[in-house]
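Can you make up a protein sequence with its backbone structure tokens?

===
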Amino acid sequence: MAAGAKEKIMVIDVGGEQFLIGITAHNINQLGKLENPIETSITNKSGAQPANLAFKDKLVKAMAETMIGAKKGKAHE
């Protein structure tokens, strides 16, 4: 997903775990680990939908869930 002229936000799968990363012209940074992985055609054995179909919607949902979880964690501190 584009985040600017030369910036992107991507989800990568490493060993079955998914990570949210930010990419700029000069850096790649890990932004977080997805607690609830996004299903793709690679991870979804039922073959429900292709990986690129509605990816943006899935990413937005995953980011919202991560942020809500972070806010709940801070409320308990």
